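S.,

As promised, the FE2/S2 (inorganic) cluster run. Input:
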Amino acid sequence: MDLKVKINGKEYASDVEPRALLVDFLRDSAHLTGTKVGCNSGNCGVCTVLVNGKATKSCQLLAIEAEGSDITTIEGLAQNGELHPLQKAFWENHAVQNGFSTPGTIMSAVELLSQNPAPSDADIKQWLQGNLSRETGYQQVVESIKAAAAELRGETSTNEQAPPTSYIGQSPKTRKTKELITGDAQFIADMSLPNMLHAAILQSPHGHANILSIDTSEAEAMPGVVRIFTWKDTQQVMPMPVIWIPPFTESHFLPHPSGIVPGSHSVFAKDRVRFVGDQLAAVVAETRQQAYDALDKIKVEYEALPVILDAEEAVKDGAPQLHETAPNNIMIHTVFGDKDATQTAIDESEVVVEQRIYNQRLMHNTLEVRGVLAQHDPATNQHTIWTNTQIPYPHRLLISLYVLGIPYNKLRVIVPYIGESNGCKGNLYPDTPLVLWMARELGRPVKWVDTRAGFSRNTAQSRDQIQHIKIAGTKDGKISALSCKAYSNVGAYPVINAPGQPLALIGRSITGAYAIPHASYEINVVYTNKVPTAPMRGSGRAEAIFLIERAIERFAREIGKDSAEVRRINMVKSDQFPFENGLGWTYDSGNYEQNLDIALEKAGYANLSQMKADALQRNKLLGLGIGSYVAVAGVGNSAKMGGEGLMSGTWGSAYIHIAPSGEVAITTGAQPHGQGQDTTFAQIAAQELQIPMDYVTIQHSDTDLPLYYGQASYGSRSLSVEGVTVQKACQMVIQKAREYAAYLFKMPLDLIEYKEGKVIGIPAPEQAVMTLQQVALMLWFGWDLPEGMSPGLEATAYFDPKNFNFPFGTHIAIVEVDKDTCAVELVNYIAVDDFGVVINPEVVRSQTHGNILLGISQALSEEARYSPETGQVLTDDFDTYSIARSSWIPHLELHRTVTPSPSNPLGVKGVGDVSNPPVAPAVVNAICDALADYGVKHIDMPVTPEKIWQAIYST
Amino acid sequence: MTINPFEYAAPSTLDEVFKLIQQNGSQVLVGDQAFVSQLKKGLLSPKAVISLKNIPELDKVVQEQNTLVIGTTTTYADLIKNPALGAYPALGQALAAIGDPHAINNSTIGGAFYYGGALHGHVLAALMTLDAELLIVDATQERITPITTFYQEGGVKNLAQGELIREVHIPAPTGASSYENMSFLGGGRTICGVAVALDKTDGLVSHARVTLSGCIAIPVRLEEVEKALLGAPVSSNDVENALEKLEAEALTFQNEPAVHEAYLLHLIKVLLKKSIMKL
Ligand SMILES: Cc1cc2nc3c(=O)[nH]c(=O)nc-3n(C[C@H](O)[C@H](O)[C@H](O)COP(=O)(O)OP(=O)(O)OC[C@H]3O[C@@H](n4cnc5c(N)ncnc54)[C@H](O)[C@@H]3O)c2cc1C
Ligand code: FES
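Predicted complex:
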């Protein structure tokens, strides 16, 4: 049908199908891809545009219904090259991280400001209820909208930043952000290639079933279908590899033909499906719509098998078995620490408290789903994949070597703008090599972008651990022993690094911020018919810190002591560093009590009973909860990680190139996905080279860049491992520049200083001076070089830290529980973190907001639910899987202390996911404190009003 | 996930509309976003969609004598702005409970009846409690139907192929009203909501209308509770006694999300008490 609309002031006419959604029309026909698709169900708001000035989720409107309307998208906001005040404010207030939700949020805010020129925080949070943020948080968004409102009222003009004299410790505006706020940045779903085909992938409706037959004939006859692939078409494709094989215990994985590593699942299931995300077939068609239309016509006959979803049940005799290679569904069983000595210490203690905790299964649920675009050039045999992954170099290695058996040097992996990961995009999924395989078979580029429901079934989930805890000590509060017997539910297959999380990351972390003489952790890593798991923001340490922080709280209550005091008594003291925690970590530096004390003071701990009494007047039960933590970060020493089982190095790398023009290009092994490394790494280089930051370009996201292998970004390692190599690479070129200057100036090396971007001969600073650019030019000419010096000015630096680093801190949550409805309201939240030396305080603040948001969301609402009969994932949209919205989050009060880490020359510690672990325990401790008078000792997450009601009214 | 193809027409006269909606498999679109939700979920699978967007007379809010008349394509955004709403606090509060501006901008009063769903539950509850009626028309005749009889056994709508919900009529209020709901952590997604309207004579309840929404597929009047409220003053004790009658109501709770009945019953009582005590 004919559709005429005005978009951003311009007339558009197009032929649309009546069923086409406005969002698809905007993106596919008008080629305005700044409007994103997140949920396609009206929940997330990333598709928000203005229709006749009204905020509208364009996935909830038929395009044809917009006939005659005036539509404004993010691309239409900037006028004559001048950013809209909201766009400017989002940038200046560091409200943009990965930027996927930014366009929709800004568009929604435009309508707010047109109605309300001076909105309060509460107005803004209320207005943004339909605009989700998963990783960025809401506070900086609220600040930005207020700043823009002020500018629109003519009250303030946003100030241009003066060039700083020092770069480290400053917060310049983040780079690669303008394209995110204008909608120009291309995410995977926004990309296309000439002659491109579209794929849709069929999943199983059963969590466990035998496949009797697959009939693709009707689908093949559908319009636009080019080919349908099943297991028959991919027999040469090898299964996914497993690259975490603990050398200290037996593992039960699946076979892999490489003979080098064990295996996981295949691109297509053949005889049997073991979880609902197992892939059965893929349709490749001319359009995405045609591919999905045809997918509905594929007929599969199944014979349903009994499903097993609970890890503790799965190890029992008689439980349905998933793999012949894994008796009783056990992938790995092992013990960290001395189990017998710990049990003896428990037996000999005055007080023992036992608690069973279920750290529920979470879904990463990034607002951006996953996608792959692949192309093969038969003339050169060059394979190229564009995908939103955190680990491009490992993708290149694993796909070429272990999955498709193609030359490493013929595979290039490129990462476009990537919209959040939370950890789930740090995995290798069978869909990725499949799309490349299909592109090669068909001789045309193929693109696959998942749906929200598909994502909920094929993309790794996380947490899901049952813990049986014993904590023991004296009546006056000294803890003598801690033991945990745990069952980790890692789902149906051992995806690449999944075993790592329930092993070392939890097992060595369970003593938290405390010196506990005896600790042990016994773990069963168990297969079930759930979706396979992978690390998630807070990974492993979140489960460990929740465990110890709940346990210490329970212990303190049991002996009738103040839990802050019990924490203080047992905390590692500031003179004990480096501190061996007895389970394998060596804590690097810290002053744990100091952060506890600051947090208590900021929270008004001394007035707690008064606060409780006041709240009771309003029919509210007030509670305060503490979460103290230490989180291992900065992965890591390669030998140590090898010892844990990771079949990879974990060093950092950077390649620096100083062009004859003096421009500095640094390729990093990091893979930014919202953490701002483009900015912070440039700050490090500018500081080290003493040149303006503008001279420095940071490169990443493409395996064809001049770095042969990079270890990527995960586990809060980017800055403290990869960032350090940036500094080191700069030092290497400075050293060469000085050596060259010594030769030219005919002076000894120790008389050559490097200052303000110049090499200077100290005895004759006026004559013997050259800028770095001049040095680079001369070195690239190479006309006159000292004996043995090669031409050019470049270097590759590596850094393999001797130890991890250990950020720490204390968070405090204050909640009010309504006595009647049992609804929980977070009324105050204080975080006092120590991330060592901080390069860019605003970037760090942004990361902390994201971490706290996720923790609150886990504590109060998130949980992946499955059908007990079929194993189907029930929480397959944002209605059923509820993530934190703006109105849940109080003003977060963030404080920081600075204790440099001795583990790296920058003195920095990890930031990206480390402040997540204390959040959920602080919130749950607060709720249990509020309910203490009702005898409530523990409630498993998510702590819903219903569970609270049961806890207080059933007793 | 795929929406089945359909024909689409957006006529500019009601006559044409009536002609088109007589066809089997045709479905009226009143400019409401929940329609798209239902298409995506496969709950609606029309052969033809007849949009009312080009019929301006269906988009209106007017006072006709004692009745507030709301045209079927009137958006919640327009309704909220209308000063006439001041007389119907339950409706104003129900609309405020929706929260998300997109949902307010793109939901229509007709959509509440055509598509229902959680979001419209608030408004439906308020309208039932306010004794609203529907003006239903077809090519030849029109009829007025109270909302309570619009929904029949098993949620079947009293609406024939070829008929159109043209207007919602709300009679002048005879007493005070209010709406209370508990949404999941303020996320907009409601767990349950209650709308109450009371008339009092000499301090005693002479007429009570109480509607429950959210936790059930279609809002229902709680008639046992209404009866029990009659003749008593609005005191904490009397209200609590009346709420004992909740157990006598035949309610089928919606199972998604899995909230247990016992808690829902508790919550309904809490909200009802809060709502009634305000009046
Ligand atoms: C915690 C929780 C509680 C729930 N309680 C109920 C319940 O009591 N009764 C019930 O029927 N269903 C409930 N649901 C389910 C869910 O609300 C519905 O399945 C869903 O809203 C149905 O949407 P719809 O397609 O029918 O259309 P609509 O309800 O009309 O909504 C259309 C779209 O708008 C979104 N939406 C709805 N309301 C809002 C809002 N206020 N703000 C922003 N977006 C909104 C919806 O998610 C949906 O995608 C609940 C879900 C959750 C997570
Ligand atoms: S609201 Fe439209 S994509 Fe999520």
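The two ends of chain A are 63 Å apart (CA to CA). The longest strand of chain A covers residues 351-363.

- D.
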